[in-house]
Amino acid sequence: xxxxxxxxxxxxxxxxxxxxxxxxxxxxxxxxxxxxxxxxxxxxxxxxxxxxxxxxxxxxxxxxxxxxxxxxxxxxxxxxxxxxxxxxxxxxxxxxxxxxxxxxxxxxxxxxxxxxxxxxxxxxxxxxxxxxxxxxxxxxxxxxxxxxxxxxxxxxxxxxxxxxxxxxxxxxxxxxxxxxxxxxxxxxxxxxxxxxxxxxxxxxxxxxxxxxxxxxxxxxxxxxxxxxxxxxxxxxxxxxxxxxxxxxxxxxxxxxxxxxxxxxxxxxxxxxxxxxxxxxxxxxxxxxxxxxxxxxxxxxxxxxxxxxxxxxxxxxxxxxxxxxxxxxxxxxxxxxxxxxxxxxxxxxxxxxxxxxxxxxxxxxxxxxxxxxxxxxxxxxxx
Length: 382
What we know:
Strand content: under 5%
Structural class: mainly alpha
Number of helices: 15
Shape: globular
CATH topology of the largest domain: ABC transporter involved in vitamin B12 uptake, BtuC
Oligomer: single chain
Mean pLDDT: 86
Order of helices and strands: HHHHHHHHHHHHHHH
Distance between the termini: 61 Å
CATH class of the largest domain: Mainly Alpha
CATH architecture of the largest domain: Orthogonal Bundle
Low-confidence stretches: none
């Protein structure tokens, strides 16, 4: 009897795994096609600029960080960390029906608060970096409250308000650096943080001199916790319900205004954490310029490639970082911007395929009805 039960449970488990894999395969199929089209576009560009070195360049591109061994792999993970977190910020907003395009500004605010604490606050080593990145994360969330409140109480489009706040954050960053943490020697940016505020390096014996630190593990942990919150908690259900239909959520008795504010604050906290992790390293200083942090916009790409899923952003962030590392090692025969062009093609194809899927899903019955009527007409004609 026990053997039958064990056999049945095993078969049931195996069947559910196969169904999950099949479902996942269908979801990532457009992404796989987009990646192939993007790489093909990259090959065409390399053939145009330097046909003799195309195979060499393609090999470097596909090898990515592994071109120089384990250090390069560590560099890939290191550069993937902030874009995973900004991708998570955008993906979380997607899941709640919002489009947080202000991740760059929230990242700037989080970065400055972290650097401010790392330079001016004296604390013992473990406590110092914990406090600095926590406060940076909170600062990003507070900055994201502005578009959240505007959306909830004045129905101001969060795309417009958040992108305008990016430029406000850039100017505010220049002012704060010049006022509190300016490097007086070169006047070009902030001072270095204290060693006690630096995030501990990760597996130096494996990744060599790579700057990889525990920020990468934090990004993975945050993504897993976010997945649990969205799909396994009441809060996550309410946030997703509000994003799916505000009117339906109101009818069900949910506080949609509160959910919008919470969603934007959490999204901003992820972006703030990205800035905190990025600059929690000795020697990594914030430039005193009006330059917008590009990682915030990379988050949109990562969120799209990750299908708007928290776990998907981990793989998408690593993939984008892998391509960019490969683009770096394609020099001097090819410009590293080729890898960015490939990423852009992948994003456009992904967006177009996603749009086509939505249209086909919406008009599927009408299309089927049209084909059936046409087939019936042809049969009657014969």
